Amino acid sequence: MDGHSSHLTAPVRSRSSQSPSPSHSASASATSSIHKRKLQPDDHALPFPPSFSDTRDGALTSNDDLESISVRGADSDSDDESEEVVDDEEEEYDNSMRNFTSSRLENTNAGGPPTARNTKIKAENSVKVEPADVSKDGNTNTNNSGAPVATGGNGSIPGIVVKEDTVKSIFTDNIQTSGAYSAREESLKREEEAGRLRFVCASNDGIDEHMVWLIGLKNIFARQLPNMPREYIVRLVMDRNHKSVMVVRRNLVVGGITYRPYLSQKFGEIAFCAITADEQVKGYGTRLMNHLKQHARDVDGLTHFLTYADNNAVGYFVKQGFTKEIYLERDRWHGYIKDYDGGILMECRIDPKLPFTDISTMIRRQRQAIDEKIRELSNCHIVYPGIDFQKKEAGIPKKTIKVEDIPGLREAGWTTEQYGHSRFKTVTLSTDATSHQKSLTAFMRSLIKAMHDHPDAWPFKEPVDARDVPDYYEIIKDPMDLKTMSKRVESEQYYVTFEMFVADVRRMFSNARTYNSPDTIYYKCSTRLEGHFSNKVQAGLQSGIKIQP
Ligand SMILES: CC(=O)SCCNC(=O)CCNC(=O)[C@H](O)C(C)(C)COP(=O)(O)OP(=O)(O)OC[C@H]1O[C@@H](n2cnc3c(N)ncnc32)[C@H](O)[C@@H]1OP(=O)(O)O
């Protein structure tokens, strides 16, 4: 069959039910009922010689033979939907056939070297996994030894030592070595290296193992693409012009792609693509496509793939680099590929150089290169030790920390000239600032006194005693009282802005209203005292007290 003679209107592939297309009545009838699969006359043509007696190399060579195996063997798809799409007779798994199939496989592999033909085909068709030549450890970083370390050299702060170890561990710990795509690819690659997972390319070549896998793949397609007539799936999967790249895990097929390489045109047509239901969205589909691209480019010499993607699979194909725009010259593909109802023609150019089966290593190297470049240009990767606040009672720091002593601040380019932008000016105060702080402290002190002297202040004068109210600190996580605030005011360090003071006052009242119900004296006291506080603040502001610098 030449490329042009294969041109036909193929059945719709979609899982969703679709209305029959008037222009394709044969395919429409094929999709109208999954149990009433009708193919166009051409679809009855067998992709293999009809004679059962032709058993070259053990190849399955009749439709009956195929169907019998498909009924009985390689049931690797554990989809719940299987009952809907698989005939009852197929569900009656024939143990004797299973034994027969496995014994055939054992015979193939046991006792002596494989036949020359087997060896040759396997060598040709196996999709190779190229060993990565970088360490498996994604954290390997040649730049670490040369990393800048703030240990008292240029730009470092005297007295603050950033340990080299700390910086190194920060380097390696903080680098995100891979995104989700690479992580999935790397994990599957490791499975391959451990021999638990294989990506194999096979066609109807008569090798028993290949035939069993192809039947398994055919079953997956039948379940995952239920609107596609089963005979049509069998026909293409078993067509010797088609090849299938399959995901094989523990000798069971869990998915695959069947495609037809048009070698003279240097493009391939993806006919079917599916992963068994319970293994979807685990990265198999992506890795499968990567293996397919590598194989199609390196073995078949293809430059492009075309496919009619189901509407609900367009997203997947887009993520694999397919576009709805067809850039391939029309002459190269028109008339070769089959038209499908309900599908969107998509194209993917196969990059001539990309290491498709080892893209994760490439991405990791790129990330490392970018990361190293960033480190050359900036110090943002260095994380300095934090400030030891060591607060004493009432949250007041034991010692004043100068802004310029904050580790890393000067290395980040901070200068004392920028100090003017800071709201927190109490560290080194100018004359103006000193007098402002004094007037602020005096105002806060007067407000504390005004509250303290009020008849409703008694519940707020001291911290709540947990012995009196055992569950208080379970409910109130951020307590406040007038005594604590007074200490903070008198320290002249804590309330560097008036807003900080007001925040403490508000918290004291809101705590009271959180813990106590509205009918309690405490609740009422808090409301009245808060009103008194607000009046005092208003009066102070009206009398000209400056609380903002
Ligand atoms: C030509 C044709 O055969 S068209 C018909 C395609 N086949 C089907 O629709 C059958 C049912 N579906 C399947 O068998 C599978 O879901 C496949 C083959 C479509 C995808 O295989 P999966 O192993 O699930 O893909 P994988 O896990 O690698 O996912 C790759 C990305 O595609 C996304 N994706 C997977 N399936 C779909 C979808 N149907 N629509 C949109 N996005 C999808 C995944 O979320 C993931 O995205 P992320 O990288 O941002 O996380």
From TrEMBL:
SUPFAM superfamilies: Acyl-CoA N-acyltransferases (Nat) (SSF55729), Bromodomain (SSF47370). Keywords: Activator, Acyltransferase, Bromodomain, Chromatin regulator, Nucleus, Transcription, Transcription regulation, Transferase. GO terms for molecular function: histone H3 acetyltransferase activity. Residues 452-523 form the Bromo domain. Residues 10-33 have a biased composition (Low complexity). The keyword Transcription applies. Residues 1-152 are annotated as: Disordered. GO terms for biological process: chromatin remodeling; positive regulation of transcription by RNA polymerase II. It is an enzyme of class 2 (transferase). Residues 121-136 have a biased composition (Basic and acidic residues). Its main location: nucleus. It holds the Pfam family Bromodomain. Residues 197-351 form the N-acetyltransferase domain. Its EC number is 2.3.1.48. Residues 76-94 have a biased composition (Acidic residues). It comes from the Eukaryota. It is found in: Nucleus. Belongs to the acetyltransferase family. GCN5 subfamily. This is histone acetyltransferase.
